[in-house]
């Protein structure tokens, strides 16, 4: 099985030169709240962006098949909070697990595959990403520092958070099959604990304090 990073370093990938006019600034593609999504690694590439000033910037591209995606969400202080996973939630109404009611939670932050692909593939970058990718895949970009030490295999499931509405990675985490345990982590919280794990830890404490008879669960909440 091919590896994203093994004893053949990423720098051995064929270098794809991409010329852009003017000056290159990835911040031009990081506006908006960003996307958090899960999927399976299918392909990789090594781009070098050469701008009008002859400045060269290297990126490693992971092409991923999406499985589910949501908008990242922040409070009024800019602190990241849990997305609204669905429009409704189930709330226990008694001591029996089978006794519950469905409550409205408002508009969901869940994204369709088509919408997520559009957010992750800016028009100015789409020709390059589509040329070296494949139909149905989204490409996420890691800079050289982020890519160091990654050991993802083709077919690994990953969770990605982007810097704004674009392809640039804020954090990428490998998920074990059937769980959220990490094997490799880049970006974001350097401790390796994923943001959703932290959120779920807080929710578990809150539920324990509130009592089990009023616990609520989103209909489409991720299994973390």
Task: Give a brief outline of the structure.
With 224 residues, the protein is of the alpha+beta class. The protein contains four helices and 13 strands. Helix content is 16%, strand content 36%.
Q: What composes the largest sheet?
A: 8 strands, mixed
Secondary-structure element string: EEEEEEEEHHEHEEEHE
Principal-axes geometry comes out as globular
Given as residue ranges, the uncertain stretches (5+ residues, pLDDT < 50) are: 1-7, 179-185, 189-195, 198-215
> What's the pLDDT, averaged over the residues?
75
Separate helix tally: 4
Q: What is the terminal separation in angstroms?
A: 27 Å
Helix and strand arrangement:
Elements (H helix, E strand, L loop, with lengths): L14 E5 L15 E16 L5 E16 L1 E2 L5 E2 L6 E5 L7 E5 L5 E2 L1 H8 L5 H7 L5 E6 H4 L9 E6 L6 E7 L6 E6 L7 H16 L5 E3 L6
Jot down its keywords.
224 residues; alpha+beta; 4 helices; 13 strands; 16% helix
Notes on the structure:
The protein has 224 residues and is of the alpha+beta class. The chain is 16% helix and 36% strand. The chain contains 4 helices and 13 strands. The chain has helices at residues 113-120, 126-132, 144-147, 195-210, and strands at residues 15-19, 35-50, 56-71, 73-74, 80-81, 88-92, 100-104, 110-111, 138-143, 157-162, 169-175, 182-187, 216-218. The strands form 3 sheets. Strands 1, 2, 3, 8, 9, 10, 11 and 12 form an 8-stranded mixed β-sheet that branches. It has a 3-stranded antiparallel β-sheet with strand order 7-6-13, with no helix packed on it. Strand 2 (35-50) and strand 3 form a beta hairpin. Mean pLDDT is 75; it is low at 1-7, 179-185, 189-195 and 198-215.
């Amino acid at each position: 099985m091919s590896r994203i990073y093994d004893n053949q370093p990423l720098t051995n990938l064929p270098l794809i030169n991409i010329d852009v006019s003017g000056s290159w600034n990835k911040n031009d593609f990081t506006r908006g709240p960003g996307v958090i999504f899960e999927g399976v690694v299918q392909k990789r590439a090594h781009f070098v962006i050469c701008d009008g000033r002859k400045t060269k910037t290297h990126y490693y591209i992971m092409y991923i098949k999406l499985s589910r995606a949501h908008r990242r969400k922040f409070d009024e202080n800019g602190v990241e909070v849990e997305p609204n996973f669905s429009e409704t939630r189930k709330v226990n109404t008694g001591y029996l697990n089978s006794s519950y009611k469905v409550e409205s939670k408002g508009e969901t932050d869940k994204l369709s595959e088509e919408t997520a692909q559009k957010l992750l593939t800016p028009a100015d970058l789409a020709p390059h990403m589509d040329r070296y990718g494949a139909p149905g895949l989204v490409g996420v970009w890691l800079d050289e520092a982020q890519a160091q030490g990654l050991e993802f295999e083709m077919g690994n499931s990953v969770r990605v958070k982007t810097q704004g509405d674009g392809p640039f990675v804020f954090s990428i985490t490998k998920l074990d099959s059937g769980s959220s345990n990490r094997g490799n982590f880049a970006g974001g919280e350097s401790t390796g604990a994923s943001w959703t794990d932290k959120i779920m830890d807080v929710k578990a404490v809150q539920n324990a304090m509130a009592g089990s008879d009023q616990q609520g669960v989103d209909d489409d909440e991720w299994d973390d």
